[in-house]
Amino acid sequence: MTAPTPRPGIMDIRPYVGGESAIEGVDRIFKLSSNEGALGPSPKAVEALRAFAPEMHRYPDGGAEELRAAIAKRYKLDASRIVCGAGSDELLGILCRSYAGPGDEVLYSAHGFLMYAIAAKACGATPVTAPEVDLTANVDNLLAAVTPRTKILFLANPNNPTGTYLPASEVARLRANLRPDVLLVIDAAYTEFVSRNDYSGGIELVEAGDNVVVCRTFSKMYALGGLRLGWAYCPENVAGVLNRVRNPFNVGAPALAAGLAAFEDTAYADLCKSHNDYWLPWLSGKLADLGLTVVPSVCNFILVRFPATPGKDAPTADKFLRSRGIIVRAMGGYGLGDSLRITIGTGEENQAVVDTLKEFVGA
To answer: Which CATH class is domain 43-264?
Structure first.
């Protein structure tokens, strides 16, 4: 008997594997593998989630009206052009399903987020990468990789897993030289952490035309990764497409309640930003002092590169960290087998990373 056969491309997908959370035989874990908020969620978000519990039998607000209104008010946006999703991942996938298919290409930089290739293959499109320069997306290389088959260009800015970014002027140049029928999707998941004067999350480019979408998430700065909540700001035509394709109740009510509370707790978000502003350069500097190569980052993580010397390489360092209960993220899946990505954690966690790698380097 012949079994059902999936569409071409589906079985070419390598399933996404998130950061590990446990080590067999180790009770106390420092999980620094998923870029989760170091301080956890806002206490007001936790309370909102508890308060909602007796109402969990009710369907959610399918339009996320209250949350969209709050986002629109803060950033002076048109609420009708905001679409919420179960994490920004869902929105990226819907955009691929809506604008790309068999015979089309989806373009992104060489070390872009792994979900771009998965979303492209899931809809039958072909993922295409453009070379980076110094582990940073390069506008000229991206434009050179555009073909008549290109339908979507994903730009993670800042980028995960490198932590690098393109200044606003370069993103504007990319948009100005991109064909108007190619959808430019700016994945700004880490934008709240960036303090550079030459950076922009890209909202102004959405306002300037019909082919730019900006995606944001509540998983990083707002530390709500377990609830799955994100949003996109789109031209009117693209928002209409997303609202036609997304599920009618695609964001759960608990996520909406906690998300609104977290978004409105600006004092706690400021605390989380200050925490990262202190510990990001601290951890980067301490590891550089050990002789390791730390890629300059504007996010809540760093990419650390190790020598190829046997016994001193990234896989061995990863094993050594795990032996001390510290879980970081190996980067082989991104073509960066010489690197480990380390989330900025609490002060105790960051100190443990430094102490452990100092022991490893000196061993």
So the answer is: alpha beta
